Amino acid sequence: MAMNYNAKDEVDGGPQCPPGGTAKNRRPDNTAFKQQRLPAWQPILTAGTVLPTFFIIGLIFIPIGIGIFVTSNNIREIEIDYTGTDPSSPCNKCLSPNATPCYCTINFTLEQSFEGNVFMYYGLSNFYQNHRRYVKSRDDSQLNGDSSALLNPSKECEPYRRNEDKPIAPCGAIANSMFNDTLELFLVGNESYPTPITLKKKGIAWWTDKNVKFRNPSGGESLKERFKGTTKPVNWVKPVYMLDSEPDNNGFINEDFIVWMRTAALPTFRKLYRLIERKSDLHPTLPAGRYYLNITYNYPVHSFDGRKRMILSTISWMGGKNPFLGIAYIAIGSISFLLGVVLLVINHKYRNSSNTADITI
Amino acid sequence: MAKINNSGQRILRKKEKQVRYLQANSRELNSTFGYPNNTIKTSRYSVFNFLPLNLFEQFQRLANAYFLILLFLQLIPQISPLAWYTTVIPLMVVLSITAVKDAIDDVKRHQNDNHVNNRSVLVVMNGRIKEDKWMNIQVGDIIKLKNNQPVTADVLLLSSSEPYGLTYIETAELDGETNLKVKQSISVTSNLEDNLGLLSAFDGKVRCESPNNKLDKFTGILTFKGKNYTLDHDKLLLRGCIIRNTDWCYGLVIYTGPDTKLMQNCGKSTFKRTHMDHLLNVLVLWIFLFLGGMCFILAIGHGIWENKKGYYFQDFLPWEEYVSSSVVSAILTFWSYFIILNTMVPISLYVSVEIIRLGNSCYINWDRKMYYAPKNTPAQARTTTLNEELGQVKYVFSDKTGTLTQNIMIFNKCSINGIIYGCGYDKNGQKVKVSEETEKVDFSYNKLADPKFSFYDNTLVEAMKKGDHWVHLFFLSLSLCHTVMSEEKVEGKLVYQAQSPDEGALVTAARNFGFVFRSRTSETIMVVEMGETKVYQLLAILDFSNVRKRMSVIVRTPEDRVMLFCKGADTILCQLLHPSCRSLREVTMEHLDDFAFEGLRTLMVAYREVDNAFYQAWSKKHSEACLSLENREDKMSDVYGEMEKDLMLLGATAIEDKLQDGVPETITILNKAKIKIWVLTGDKQETAVNIAYACNIFEEEMDGIFIMEGKNDETVRQELRLARNKMKPESLLESDPVNTYLNTKPQMPFRIPEEVPNGNYGLIINGYSLAYALEGNLELELLRTVCMCKGVICCRMTPLQKAQVVELMKRYKQVVTLAIGDGANDVSMIKAAHIGVGITGQEGMQAMLNSDYAISQFRYLQRLLLVHGRWSYNRMCKFLSYFFYKNFAFTLMHFWYAFFSGFSAQTVYDTWFITFYNLVYTSLPVLSLSLFDQDVNETWSLRFPELYDPGQHNLYFNKKEFVKCLVRGIYSSFVLFFIPMRTIHNSMDSDGKEISDYQSFSLIVQTALLCVVTVQIALDTTYWTLISHIFTWGSLGFYFCILFLLYSDGLCLMFPNVFQFLGVARNTLNLPQMWLIIILSVVLCILPVIGYRFLKPLFWPADVDKIMNRIHLWTRHPLLPPTQTKLRHTRPRRSAYAFSHKQGFGALITSGKTMKDKQAVLAAHHPKGAGQGPQKAGLRPKPRGSGRRKALRVTRGTHRSEQLGRWASTAGPEDRTNAPSGGAAGGKARSDHRLRGCRGARTLPTRPERRGAPACPSCSTTPGGRETRPPAPQPPPAPSPPARSSPTVSSDCPCGDTPQLTRAQLYRCIHISFAGPERAQRPSSQPRDRGGGFRTASPSQAVGALCPFGPWFRSWYLPESG
User: Tens of pLDDT along B537-548?
Assistant: First the structure.
């Protein structure tokens, strides 16, 4: 007979003596909380609440879906694959690694004019920017201009941390693999001489990235001095302080660089490359017609079956062209509505039978 | 059993070989043995070892150990996809919550320990008394204990303030019995008394067994002054006892601190785990397997990917140096995924479960409706780990006495001479139901009445006042024929000590109606009859036994008539009646039927006037039978039989064995909840069955009740099969599925499926038959039979058997058992059952201390089970379903993402989200759900006990439900991954910036996930309190706040590598896509659930759903108030049993042993002969706190001589039997053992000169004084049948001469005893007293001590003195 010994019980002698003595009253407090009587709202799942829900969801989703779908469809978008895997492609020649630098030109026609601001993207496929080792291969301190991290980048950057005993700036696989094709767009007008389209290269990165997250190291006069003691990433041609001529778009705050550093979530992605601002309300930004694209082909993707694309797109309040959301909304709305009808019928049929088979209590 | 015992004893024997030596008052010597001091330590930790020890204990838990391993895995950078803090922070929080809880518990224990250890005690040191702390007490010290003090350590009783070194203790702490026990020191030490010089010089050496946990075993030898004295447990005061009724006593410390029997007994009780815990363990194992499988799949995927793509992608992402091939990479990835997917096993699961259980336990403690005001005790959840099990109980094993019944007997009705009394009638002659308002009978005419006694029928009192002869005789018989002892601390305030409450009730009734039993000595009974004191000579008690089922007393009335009064079971007594009572018997039997109808315990009362000569002859025979050594039992019963015949029927009594309040209702409700209630009682079959009917365990409508009373294997088997044949004949066929199942000889842990009988049956089995039935081959037979019965009564059970029955049920049935009881004999059962409930009642605290829940009334059980249990169960199930669901939905997202991230173990979420998800974002809503949710409120729970059913079959959370959670989780994660993925794919925001970057995607997915799980829990919540709203929506809001904090510039710039998501919140939360995604995901995740929940009751309606429908209907249209179910009225049945006390009590009375002071007087008077065996349990000394009888103290000399005399007499009891002592070796010189054998039928050979003319009850006057009795020879009262007239008492009762003891003398005695110790002038008829003073305090004792029996003792054993 084992006992659960408790010193307190030995002392107190167990239950308190009856009331009337000095023993304190041990009646529990009469509070709603302690007595589990908190006022409460008790929703019940009944036909009266469930069926309308289905119908309402249907009725709301279908118009929304249609709206989104229509908006998405109104967006102009053109996508040009310039990887050059097709032997007939003008860029096919650039697939061999020997031809550097390699230039190629792709012609295309816009059937309809692009109005408003037009955005130019480059798209990569089969490029695993979201691979775990790739994603972490960067040093945010360094990119933020931390001088100690500049000269001593984080271990995460391996194997692109140091090159020839000098720290790499910017370090890591992401920076090292920065997209370095140059795209130029020309409108082949009625005139024989093609007009180049002005491509704005600023304003393509998030404001927070450009102004907060990415900063050039402080110190010295020129950018070059600030990056003193570092070396360029292995794959790069030029060091980081020579990315652009404009000082506010050079070094770590180069917007092309910033955009690249914001890694994509999926292996097929597009990144904003240039802006084509609309000039006036009267003329379309990109009138319908023939265009050609000049490509300085530097970026090798063939080895891993990657694809490179150039995308031109207009934009709506909803962003770019993506019919998925609209279709999904329409589909779910319809299903919900249908389900509502089915449930209504079932309910009508079964409720009666279950009511007649009443419980006997 | 026997085997176990033997082996147990063998082990014990081994232990006994180690012997403990000690010497009193010799600390130097004792310290060489290295005994511990008296410090007790129940705390587990100290300040220094808390951290390591607690952590060690915590990491012994599987889940914690798992996370520790995980932590180490994460520290390997090659495989770790997550930052170390994702596991460390939750683990730290979890560990610290548990640690804080443990620390608080331990601090309490420390405080208690300190409190106990620092109590002061008086120690004898060098001839002086010193005060010291408990913890400083050493083995060999002599300590002084005072009244009402707890005993400090296990001490050997040396001497006490009481004569013979007697000490009274209460052992409620140890064995739960509240009655006082007597301990007695050996003579040589009791002589030390409180002489400090002697005590400190005492150098006895003790050799005794080493510490063990046997409470009732102690052997040792005391060597003192060259002599050896054996010691047994009667001399040992155990720690935990409380000294009562003893002013002081001295003891020698034998065992201290951890060596004490109390501490040796407090082995850790087995930790009870719920079915849910087991299920959880199984599920966690499943999850592990599932996790392993997923990791394996993903690792293979990774291998393939690295081979096909990753290898070629090395231009941009080279392999690490140590990765030689894709296989190596795959192996590493396996572990990476193992880390990532660790959230499948929810780290906070166990902590959350503990918090929820704690909360629900608090509700039990806080429930006012389970607070019992009269005792000031709320319900108490003593363990916080079993709550949900309360909602799953299928079998309740209940004790009877003190649990179902109050163990209070109430004199309810009586039938006297053919007239029934006690049924209240109002003025119109209508029967009224007794309620609070019913007017009680006024007993103010009787100063000695017990104010607590209530009676509702005035006619009886009127009859009493009128002086109805039969009524008087009836109550006289009740006031004489019993073995109750009285105590009168304050004059007029009588306290009865009855061994059986039935007797107490009868005597109390007689007392109130005017026949007050005031006091007794071994030879007299003093009764105050309607204000007039009379002393009856008690000639013999023909005591109760189970066979006889009756008891009688033979008294000589003051009128010198010899009367026999008898009470007993009607079945027996009927056969002993005089033929002339036949018609009265018929009437009375009808009344008894009426009484039985109401479930009352009945007794018949009869008397007989015995011819003096006949009595003398009988008395002689009786003495011979008493002294015979062979066949004493038979001879005695023959002798008794001679006397108890030709009885004249007086009437019958009906006693209500008062059930606790609301017991039948509770049992009806529990029955409706399909909880089967078994009564396991040590009581007799008749009583148990009676109670079973009274509280609806058995119903009259039952199709049959089987009684198992076989005395061997075969008969028991036959009985069981017979019963089964009736209940379900096909279960005996070979083809029965259960039989075929059993024939396959399944492995040991197998379950017997539920079988449905063809009706409602009850079963009664007694302990003897059960012993056979519990043997191996009959076990299953028993179980199958018994489980088909609705109600089962097991009577005559030993505590061990109670536990065996519970164990049997646990072994073969997948059900939850609950045992409820209040006494020490229920402890084994309480500990064996899944849930032990203790009734905090009169019978001590043992049951309570071992229980998991303590309630003070049986009726609270329905609330505990149907309300708290059901809620706890529902909440726990909801919690678990939701908890698993949310973690699956959360974790499985990584699985889908693997296909798009090269199986690289990239997480979908920000690491901070992973860290906080379980701990912060989703913990509060789920807590509010599991602490506040109520599907229906308490009223409905009790109104529809059927709602309890799902718990019993564990319908709300089982493996199937778990799989459903998994499926739901997979679905939700699928939706939550692919909807955002497809939406952001190639999408831009309205600025043209692409939104498909990893960080935005993370944010969208995690926000959508959080919204979905929040809406999901909102859907699960059926009881929305303000707190639920705050917690649920607040958590979601809090998430956004945290988001802005974590992604804020400041934090990110401080630690750019830790907080990388700078600005994501600002950029992404603006996106209309994001909100559209969230809405779509939520709807997509919720719609199927709503549809399923809506359709399920339509397609597969369960009873519960129908009831819920009805409740909802009523809640909305409160036109139909719920009606209370009415209890069916029971058909008449024969109950007829009353005595519940054990035999052997009469012997103690006639021995006079219980009257301590009287002994002292006697001893003082007869110094050489007053012997006294050790007092044993069974006698009831005065209750605690009787601040008594020390008014007059004998001088030391006398005291000493008492002892001398006593010890002299112990030498040879045989001599005394034949001692021709006219006085000296008087009354007390009987050996105890003989006394017991004689079963109380101690007749008193009366001295001739005392035999005055007996006064008959109907004599109008006695010489002594005023007579208030009614005139004697009246014709019998009107309704009595004519047959009665023949042997009336009055007709053949000679009235006459002076009784030998007049009332005046009696009063003088009382007066003397009050006056003081000076010698009273003895009445002339009294023989000389040569003793010293008188030691009495209370008048009753004075009477007992002085007047009647002093001289008688001398002739105690004399043959008929001529």
Answer: 888 888 877 677
Burial class (CB in 10 A: 0-12, 13-18, 19+), B1244: buried
Q: CA neighbours within 13 Å on the CB side: how many for B193?
A: 10
- Across A125-134, B62-71, B100-109, the highest mean pLDDT is recorded for A125-134
B681 is in an annotated binding site: yes
| Domain ranges for chain A | 50-75+318-343, 76-315
Three-state secondary structure call for residue A179 = coil
B513, B464 contact by CB (below 8 A): yes
Contact status, residue A250 vs residue A186, Cβ threshold 8 Å: no
Hey, which of B13-27, B666-680, B1231-1245 has the most confident mean pLDDT? B666-680
- Asked if B904 and A315 come within 8 Å (Cβ–Cβ), the reply is no
Mean pLDDT of B920-929: 91
For B:992-1031, CB contacts with A below 8 A are 992-1002, 1022-1028
Q: Could you give the C-alpha distances from A83 to A105, A122, A237, A303, B985, in angstroms and in order?
A: 12, 11, 21, 11, 20
Catalytic residues of B: 399
B979 touches chain A (CB under 8 A): yes
What pLDDT shows up at residue B1317? 38
3-state secondary structure of B529: strand
Q: In the structure encoding, which two tokens stand for residue B764, read together?
A: 């009664």
Task: Please determine, for residue B1314, whether its predicted confidence score (pLDDT) is greater than 60.
Answer: no
Q: Can you give the pLDDT at residue B6?
A: 46
Residue in chain B lying closest to A324 (CA): B983
Element (H, E) at B1205: helix B1196-1210
Which structure tokens are listed for B36? 């511990």
Question: Residue B39: pLDDT above 90?
Answer: no
User: Alpha helices of B938-1061 — where are they, by DSSP H?
Assistant: 938-943, 949-952, 959-984, 998-1020, 1026-1046, 1049-1054
Report, as an integer, the average pLDDT of B928-933.
91
Give the ipTM of the model, two decimals please. Answer: 0.93
b/e per residue, B1031-1046, with b = 16+ CB within 10 A?
bbebbbeebeebbeeb
CA distance B518 to B509: 13
Size of interface A-B (CB pairs under 8 A): 365
> What span, in angstroms and rounded, lies between the C-alpha atoms of B1244 and B1224?
17
Closest CA to B153 of B161, B143, B167, B166: B143
Angle B14-B18-B24 from CA coordinates, rounded to 5°: 145
Question: Does the beta-carbon distance from B988 to A320 stay under 8 Å?
Answer: yes
Asked if residue B1047 has pLDDT above 50, the reply is: yes
- Angle between helix axes B349-366 and B85-117 (nearest 10 degrees) is 40
Q: Which two tokens stand for residue B292?
A: 């392993």
Kindly report the average pLDDT of chain B as a whole number: 76
Q: What is the separation of C-alpha B1059 from the centre of its chain, rounded to a whole number of angstroms?
A: 59
pLDDT-derived band at A16 (thresholds 50, 70, 90) equals: very low
Please report, as a single letter, which amino acid is at residue B910.
D
Rounded to 10°, the helix B870-898/B326-340 angle is 150
- Pair of tokens at residue B1000: 């935005």
- φ/ψ of B398, rounded to 5, equals -120, 140
| pLDDT tens by residue, B1135-1170 | 444 444 344 445 555 555 444 444 433 444 444 433
Query: Residue B812's pLDDT is what?
Result: 85
**Which residue of chain B has the CA closest to A311?**
B986
Which letter, b or e, does each residue of A56-92 get, where b requires 16 or more Cβ atoms within 10 Å of its Cβ?
A: ebbeebbebbeebbebbeebbbbebbbbbeeeebbbe
| Nearest CA among B503, B666, B504, B652 for reference residue B589 | B652
For residues B873-909, one letter each, b for 16 or more C-beta atoms within 10 angstroms of the residue's C-beta and e for the rest, the string is bbbbbbbbbbbbbbbbbbbbbbbbbbebbbbbbbbbb
Residue B861 near residue B670 (C-beta atoms within 8 A): yes
- Over residues B729-754, mean pLDDT: 72
